[in-house]
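ENTRY TYPE: paired fold submission
RECORD: A
CONTENT: sequence, then structure tokens
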Amino acid sequence: MSRTRVGGMAVSLLLLSGMCAPSWAEHPAKSLMRLSNVGSQAQELASGARGEDGGSLQTGTPLPSWLDELLASVPQSGPTQPNAGNPQDQIQPTERVATPAKGPVQEPVTPVQEPVTPVQEPAGPVQEPIAEDGEFPRPRPIAPLYTSPALEGEGVWSPEGMPEDAQEKPLLYRTVYRPSAEFPNSVVHMVVFDMKRIKVRFFVGQTEPGVYHISEPSIREDNSKIVAVTNAMWMQRHAKGAGAIFRGQEVYPMVNGMATLVVYRDDSIDILEWTDDIPRHLIKDARQLRHLIVKNGRVVEEVAKGNKVQDAEIGLGGFLVDNNGVSTMRNKFWFLANRTAFGIREDGNLVFAMAHHCGTKDLAKALVLAGCKRAIHADANIHNIVCNFYFRGDKGKIVKRDKLSPDQLNYTMKRYDNGYTKDFFAFYER
């Protein structure tokens, strides 16, 4: 994705808010999914042949010695006890999810691999959520994969240094986590918003073609209530036909089956696979991009498109670059990049994640551990990833700014003060 310049669009910060979405929105477009069951079929065969005592057929007929030796090498079935301190045990088996396509979907040749094993034992058991005055419970801590070198505050959700309401109660929590067992330097910074007290607005970028189809592109919000601003999705030319709705007006046609972040007119929010069954009159804003990276609380490993099954890694249409602006697409690990994503939790709260040197599936894994049931990829590359926090003083005047990740570029902290060339989301206190 090419670097864009700041424009002078007379659009102030917008935001998208959300509580729990309507119940009908919990049923996204149907798609093909396959759970990983490698090993369980072998266990069933073993128990069926051996019987409960593991030494003879259920009819009582003695086993031939060669078959007994063969079955002895098959793991026995039975319940396993997960390690309460292991964050991998919090992740359900991965799925392969297929986006809707014309014609029958071909079954893949290779099975889905089981989740990777952490390279180090986590430090201590996972604790229950900590309630803050019974209003905005802190998410449960995530036990680290790595104990050395230690990363300060890893997996612990903290309100320290974050925007608060007038009663000095936290509006959001943040944490940092290393989700990858293969790449220890993959780091994900996350923030969870209290969507009962925050609303979100979507803004279309000044240079995006669709802005000319909007009758009121300069709608303003009350910046005295601003809490945060994040990047949105990719530029439209990289998004392969992704749809968008702005204040009820369709900017780009919506695509069935595509991952979609939706803001409803009641300021609730959801992330789902788009379907025409969703009533348009209930939608305020919506933005689409590719496929869900988390579905049903599980990391999406593969997607089916037409008659092909593809890896779920997302490559920004071949425009991923490193911090020096050099394309990563010729590298063996081309997918290690700066990325962002949004996830929706069961409690209706939204999580924004910013990852460095990270692949799509490890980013998705971090969101699953943060309690997200569905997630959508957002923008990528170091000059495009932004999460700014705003601190207000008397009469709502902004007196301080901060950023989610120390690796976010400093010049982006004032990017959205007067609108911007690309689309973005703004978060306001209700």
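RECORD: B
CONTENT: sequence, then structure tokens
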Amino acid sequence: MDQINPEMERTDVAVVNGANDVVNPDAEENKSSPLYGMPIIKVHDQRAEEDRLAQGSPRAERAGASRAPARFASRRADAHLYAVRPTGADAVRDPILLRVVLFLPLLLSAATCDLPLAPSVNALLAELRARAGTLVEVQELPPWELGATHLQEVHLRSSSGLTVDARIRVPLEAGPGDRRAGVVLVGGAQTAWEATELLPDSTGQVLIAMQYPEPFEKAADGVWEGGATTFQRAAWDVPAMLMVLADYLATRPEVDPRKIVLIGVSFGGFFAPAAAAADTSFVNVALLYTGGDLRGLAAELASSRIDELPDAFTILASDLASLPIARLEPRLYVGRISPRPVLLVNGLRDERVPRASALALHNAARPPKDVLWLPTAHLEPGDTALIVELVDTAFARLPAFREP
């Protein structure tokens, strides 16, 4: 209690699950209460009333073990949300609700993330640059052939201690002094460094993609380990890792360091704007089938999949789920890519990134920007025809691929 109470004054969200007596302000304010003098968690000291939300279970409205009235539940009641719980049997029978029950602890623990309340974007970019550091160690494993290219795994370490495992794809005919473009690809957590293998041989450019930090790799396989702080740190590492990849590409003899391009696709597009804003070595940026307004996107996805849950829960869950990567909100950074060109491509029938999310990102970007809508659903790794179309589009529209 001594550790958490000083934090309550700057807490926006408190989740109270049946802890009636230990959050009751009567312990401090009501001398006639049987609780008076008992140490409590001072949930009532949260930030300004209009800025906060306390969530409790319906049991929080009842008296606690002391039989003292649950004054916390009646105090400032407009700031409370009481969750509606399915019965245990219903939750077990319904796979969607069961999934929510299992995932809820991670969402709720996100409220404890050590995030600045109003971070300066300049400060965040400086923090990213410090995390990326400078490239100090490169380990290149033996390459193998794939079509007209060769693939090679590389292990990189920066001066900050950040490590990156990546896979690079180089045309077989490439040689020193070729001045080819170097392309950093960042797609979904399940695709990871295999993104280099999804593009056709005909690109003629040097491609590199990385493995995501371990918590994201495990989550992609359905294994959730660690709390929200673990995911927040891992998420914040991703743009710094992309910057390390750019540093490595600049050392490759086949690559022109003035022609390094960042392409963020789907989930990877959430991280790309921060990396590009922090690192001007990315001369062109393409953001494909991704969006902005992560809170709104999370709410949209939750409401479209979990019809049984009340709207209030959807809003709270989206807020909490967004907290670990709130500082990576793409709208904070995409405008700072200017005056470097940015290409934005979305699908008119995209069921994962709704139009509102795509438009939020488009509107935050500044010229020179090129916006393209395609009559497609969300991009999938196996959609070879669409991948080829996107590659052709990017190479035709981004200056780095056209300049000699």
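NOTES ON RECORD B: Residues 228-251 form the longest helix (24 residues). The longest strand covers residues 255-265.
STATUS: closed
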